[in-house]
Amino acid sequence: MQAAVAVAILLVATLLRIADPVAVEAVRLAGFDQLQRWFPRAVEPVPVRVVDVDEASLARIGQWPWPRSVLADLVQRLNEAGAAAVVFDMLFAEPDRGDRGADGATATDRRFAAALGDARGVLGLALVSQPTGAAADGKAGIATVGPDPAAGLLPFAGVVRSLPLLAAAAKGEGAINAVPDRDGVVRRLPVFLALDGRPVPSLAAEALRVAQGAAGHLLRGEPDGRIVARIGNLLVPMDARCR
Fold first, then answer.
1. How deeply is 193 buried, as exposed, middle or buried, from its count of CB atoms within 10 A (0-12, 13-18, 19+)?
2. pLDDT below 70 — which residues of the chain?
3. How far is the C-alpha of 91 from the C-alpha of 125, rounded, in Å?
């Protein structure tokens, strides 16, 4: 009798976890958040520096968006300081202010593009739910091994990229999409997403690739649904949705 009750409880718990109704998800997420407060992950030093557009820099340089000539100077200085890659977590989909040439770009756009090319620049792109007619022409090839990993990736139908001149100059482009949980909190970020059934790297994945000088990405699908990515010399274990 006790064994039957235990099996029934286990079966109900399993079905609830698979269905993941709102009430169960809320308890699970609240428990996860509390564990982070009780046992926060140890902060380990990493060779990453964030250049923030903060109030002090806005007061000194002026309101955003800054002229692309300012960004070109910033990229050049970071490159001279030895940055392995200069990564912009933003889009530059419109031309800079000023007279535009036949390609729709301005002189400051061209200067910014030249700096990006010299400094191994990486730009963001945004994946969207509606087709845009644009393609995410990857800077790096993505090879797959084992079960198709694209089947479980978060799907999108369109992409918004930076100005063609800038996108062409950059050494990498990665998705800047953040997918929150049902309560609106972002707890995990996808390392790869899907555009029309094809894997697209995130900005973080492309930053790692460009910084290491790697030519492409390798995604290996595991029999249990998990995915392991090789980015340069790094192995990144992920779940079935590449998070």
1. buried
2. 1-22, 24, 136-137
3. 6
* Residue 10: predicted pLDDT: 56
pLDDT of residue 55: 93
Where does the chain have alpha helices with state H? 2-19, 22-38, 55-61, 68-80, 107-118, 164-169, 203-212
pLDDT tens-place string over residues 37-77:
888 888 788 788 888 889 999 999 999 999 999 999 999 99
CA distance 68 to 16: 52
The length of the chain is: 243
| Amino acid 6: pLDDT | 55
In a domain, 243, yes or no: no
Strand partners, 124: 174
Structure tokens at 52: 């923030």
Domain of 82 in residue numbering reads as: 61-238
Per the structure, the count of domains in the chain is 1
Residue 177 lies in a domain: yes
CB atoms within 10 A of CB 64: 9
What pLDDT is recorded for position 83?
93
Q: Cα angle at 178 between 239 and 13, to 5 degrees?
A: 45
Environment class of 204 (CB within 10 Å of its CB; exposed 0-12, middle 13-18, buried 19+): buried
Whole-model pTM over 0.90: no
Whether residue 96 is contained in a domain is answered as: yes
Q: What local confidence, expressed as pLDDT, does residue 21 receive?
A: 57
Residues 117-131 as b or e (16 or more Cβ within 10 Å = b): eebbbbbbbbbeeee
